[in-house]
Amino acid sequence: MADMENCIYQTAFRENNFLGGKVRIASVPILSSMILSKVFHDFRERYPFVTLELIEGSTPEIRKMVEEHQVDFGFTSSPFGDLDAEIVLQDQMVAISKEPLQELPIDLHRTDYKFILCRAGYETVMEERQAEKVKLPGSFIVQQAETVIHFVAEENGIGVISAFVLAATPNNLCRSPVTPEIKMDIGLVANDLDDLIPVATALVNMIREECERSQQGKG
Fold it and tell me: How many CA atoms lie within 13 A of 217 on its CB side?
């Protein structure tokens, strides 16, 4: 009933050359801060009658919110499960250290290394590599990527972090490849991306544009 009311509201606005209504988005925190923070400002300038609702969570939480129609669409990293997904960014996990490491690539199966990961990255490693039984024994699991960087800077261990996040976070740390290689896709997910309400489609288009700019900048 709420979705129907929202669609009727938007139809009325379109008839008068406006776009209004409400969009509900679920996103992992790092994408909220790096992509959505830029998009939301421009979107609200362009569509002042739209209400944006943002819910942050982990990748599994976002999948559940989308599946249960708690949000219009999600913005998260792979895996995407059975949801309709459109990949908008490419990413991979890398190791970071205070000083250059001798043995490369860094083996994630090593039990003599103290690894440091943010929770989102840890969940990605676990879910992406279940078949390879990557356990990361003796690891520190922290909440924020910035904490990983600070821990590594103070020589508490080897960080394992998203290359996309690392490029956007100022640091002087050494970067190394990891094995097994862990690549991730970052995408927009919905039950049906082609059947979004008009105002959500407008927001999705702006996210696509910002992701393209971000990927080009990274390159």
Answer: 12
Residues in contact with 180: Cβ distance below 8 Å, sequence separation at least 6, in sequence order:
108, 129, 132, 134
Tell me the torsion sign for CA atoms 160, 135, 61, 197: positive
β-partners of residue 138 are: none
Asked if residue 198 lies in contact with residue 50, where contact means CB atoms within 8 angstroms, the answer is: no
Spell out a b/e string for 122-139, using b for 16 or more CB atoms within 10 Å of the CB, else e: bbbbeebbeeeebebeeb
Residue found by looking up tokens 């039990």 in the block: 111
CA–CA dist 42, 36 (Å, integer): 10
Residue 17 pLDDT: 44
- Taking only the tens place, the pLDDT of each residue in 88-140 is 999 999 999 999 998 899 998 888 889 998 877 777 767 666 655 566 655 78
CA distances from 37 to 49, 55, 57, 89 (A): 18, 13, 16, 16
Instruction: Using DSSP bridges, classify how beta strands 50-56 and 21-27 pair: parallel, antiparallel or unpaired.
Output: parallel
Place of tokens 């261990």: 157
Alpha-carbon distance 76 to 188, whole Å?
Answer: 7
CB 188 within 8 A of CB 207: yes
